[in-house]
């Protein structure tokens, strides 16, 4: 195979000559491959038709973790036990391939079954365990409400004090309420 010089070895004059030839053929309505070019689109519909479709998105959805029900796990373990009892060569492997499971699934499920954990066969909720007291949110809400009402009460006391001063200036003093303090 003959090695052709790369673009760094081609002279700049040869490069400009090639560019000039390509641009003149495109200007004359002929593309660089020798086929005639269609006129540019004019309407929006022509633009949509001339535009190639967008490539499929490269963003892949996050795969969902498989969750198996307790009944499914018990059924599979029963089928595996029956396949082992039959003595047929490769029966368990065929079952695993058919169901899309791994031998580690069987080991974990058998361990839970042998420990007597029927609930252990049920899918577990993943993530951090909730450690909040259910009454804590109610207490926080009531504390916020109490602080708001105390603020409103302070504003009302200021308004009453101003009204008393205005009444005293106008010559109609309002007596102090003995229950107020």
Q: What does the secondary structure layout of this molecule look like, with pairings?
A:
Blueprint lengths: L11 H16 L16 H7 L19 H17 L4 H9 L3 H12 L21 H34 L12
Helix pairs in contact: 3-5
Give the count of helical stretches: 6
Described by its quaternary structure, the protein is single chain
- Count of individual beta strands: 0
Biggest beta sheet attributes: none
**Rg of Cα set:** 41 Å
How would you characterize this protein structure?
The chain has 181 residues and is an all-alpha fold. Among the domains are: 70-121, no CATH class; 144-181. It has helices at residues 12-27, 44-50, 70-86, 91-99, 103-114, 136-169. α3 (70-86) packs across α5 (103-114). It is flat.
Write a compact overview of the structure shown.
This protein has 181 residues and is mainly alpha-helical. 52% of the residues lie in helices and 0% in strands.
Descriptive labels:
52% helix, 181 residues, single chain, mainly alpha
């Amino acid at each position: 195979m003959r090695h052709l010089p790369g673009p760094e070895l081609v002279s700049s004059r040869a490069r400009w000559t090639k560019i000039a030839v390509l641009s003149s053929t495109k200007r004359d309505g002929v593309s660089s491959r020798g086929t005639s070019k269609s006129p540019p689109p004019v309407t929006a519909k022509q633009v949509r038709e001339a535009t190639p479709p967008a490539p499929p998105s490269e963003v892949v959805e996050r795969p969902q973790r498989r969750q198996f029900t307790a009944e499914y796990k018990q059924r599979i373990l029963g089928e595996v036990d029956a396949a082992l009892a039959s003595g047929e060569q490769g029966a368990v492997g065929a079952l695993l391939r058919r169901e899309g499971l791994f031998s580690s699934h069987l080991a974990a499920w058998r361990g839970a079954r042998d420990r007597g954990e029927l609930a252990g066969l049920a899918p577990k909720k993943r993530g951090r365990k909730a450690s909040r007291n259910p009454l804590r949110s109610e207490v926080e809400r009531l504390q916020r409400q109490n602080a708001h009402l105390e603020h409103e009460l302070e504003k009302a006391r200021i308004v009453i004090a101003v009204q008393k001063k205005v009444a005293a200036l106008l010559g109609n003093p309002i007596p102090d309420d003995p229950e107020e303090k």
